[in-house]
Each structure stands twice: as C-alpha cells, then as structure tokens.
Design brief:
Helices cover about 70% and strands about 0% of the residues. By secondary structure, it is mostly helical.
C-alpha cells in the first residue's frame, strides 16, 4: 500500500512541505477530502476531521480502527438521550454525535491520505452508519417513553427501527450488480444534472431535502438547541422528520423494486 509522507517524520521537515501547522492542516484537508461532498462535510466536519487525521497519520492506527473508535464514541449519544432526559442532555448527545461523526469522516480521509482504501472499509463504514441510525431512533423513542410515560413512544421507536432496517436492506439490494447492472459501492454518489422542467425541479427539491434529512449529523444539533426554547423535547421533531423520510424512501424504493421485478418481461433476454 502507498503510504502518506506524514507517516515518515523526516518528511515533516522537508523544505518543500507546507510550513506552519495551519498550512499543514490545510494540506491534509485538501489531500484527503472528497471531490463531491455535502455542504456540512465541506465546511464543518471534514476540516475538523483533518485535524484528527493530521495526528493519526503519524501513528500506526488504521482507517478501520478509526471507524471502530468512532462507533465507540457514538455510544455516548444513546446513553445521554436515555439517562440524561433534560434539554441539556439532548445537547450533550448532539455533541457526542458530532464527535463520532468527525471520526466517521476521519477514517475515509485517513484512508485516502495513506492509500489504505479498501472495499471492505467502505462496507464497514456503511454498516456502522446504519447501526448508529438504529441506535439513535431507538434511544429517542425510549427517551420520550421515559419522559412521558406513554407506551406509544416505545411503539414509535420500534417502528423506526423496523423502517431503518428495511431501508438498509433495500439499499443493499438495489446496489447489487445483479439488480443495478453494476456494483455500486457505499459512499459513491452518482452525479445528477439539475432538471429544467417545473415538475423535475420540484422532485429534485424533494429528493434533495430527503437526502439532507437522512444525513442527521447535519441537523441533529439544531434539533437539540430547539429543545431549549420549546415546551416539547427535541427528540419529537427528530423522530417525525427522520422516520418520515425513511418511510418515503422505503415506499419509493420498494415500489421501484416491485415494478421492476414483477413485470412479465423481466425474465426475457436474460442469461
């Protein structure tokens, strides 16, 4: 595997290398970021992760180990949600979620910087992401059940876990080369041109909003802060928005799979 010069202490003293900590951090960020990324990652998460990567690159820690460390850090989020049921507890949960997400960004950035990328690493990232989503939905439901002593919130969290599980299974299925016609790796986003028709723009806007809501690290902190100024717990709007978009995704993807595989002509012209 190719290695980053940051793994070699001598390279840090190379006269041609960027001088000063700020310049070196910028170089790490520019060398390890994705070419296409969401706004939150570009301006918030990945610059913060670049600081972590700068120090990790000088150690024997691997990208997969960083992924696992991030998963361990994330466990503080459901713990805070369940056992610290004040608005401040929600903010602490959001902070731990963001810290875990910085690790999530750092594993890929470290892999790209050091040349230690692998298909298995991409799937490990996807696995950890979906487990975190399951834990977050379940913990929010349990939190609201304990706050309100209402069994319906426990049922809502169970429904949320089912939705996330079904959506994850559907995503894995439609990425299979047997279905998609090509192998689609986790984290790979197909470029789409912005439509020009009114209906196309409307659908594009709805899809963009749904993608934003699925990426909960981008907005969970706002929900947590909202809980300081509202009479209801911030976990309520989170569950409503997050479960709503998963419900739409499951319905849309499930319908597409059904229409494609159930049509009579599906078996024609197949080897």
């Amino acid at each position: 595997m190719a290695s980053s010069p940051l793994h070699e202490p001598a390279a840090m003293n190379d006269p041609k290398a960027p001088q000063g900590l700020g310049a070196q951090l910028k170089a790490v960020y520019l060398s390890s970021r994705k070419k296409r990324d969401i706004t939150w990652n570009t301006y918030v998460a990945r610059p913060a992760a670049a600081v972590l990567v700068y120090f990790l690159a000088k150690t024997p820690i691997t990208p997969n180990q960083v992924s696992m460390l991030g998963a361990l850090v994330f466990l503080a989020t459901p713990a805070a949600l369940i056992f610290w049921r004040s608005p401040l507890g929600l903010i602490v949960a959001a902070l731990m979620l963001q810290l875990a997400y910085i690790f999530h960004c750092a594993d890929g950035q470290l892999a790209r910087l050091t040349g230690m990328t692998s298909p298995v690493g991409a799937y490990l990232d996807f696995l950890i992401d979906e487990v975190k989503a399951l834990l977050l939905v379940a913990a929010c439901g349990v939190r609201l059940w304990l706050i309100h002593d209402d069994l319906r919130w426990l049922i809502a969290s169970l429904l949320g876990v089912v939705l996330v599980s079904v959506a994850t299974s559907l995503t894995t299925f439609v990425r299979r080369p047997e279905y998609a016609g090509e192998q689609i790796m986790p984290g790979v986003h197909a470029a789409r041109e912005r439509p020009t028709s009114a209906l196309g723009l409307l659908l594009w806007g709805v899809e963009s909003a749904a993608k934003y809501l699925i990426h909960y690290p981008s907005w969970f902190s706002y929900i947590a802060l909202l809980g300081l100024f509202t009479p209801f717990d911030g976990a309520i709007p989170f569950l409503a928005l997050f479960m709503g978009v998963y419900m739409l995704y499951t319905a849309k993807t499930g319908l597409a799979v059904t229409l494609k595989l159930a049509r009579p002509g599906f078996y024609q012209h197949r080897d």
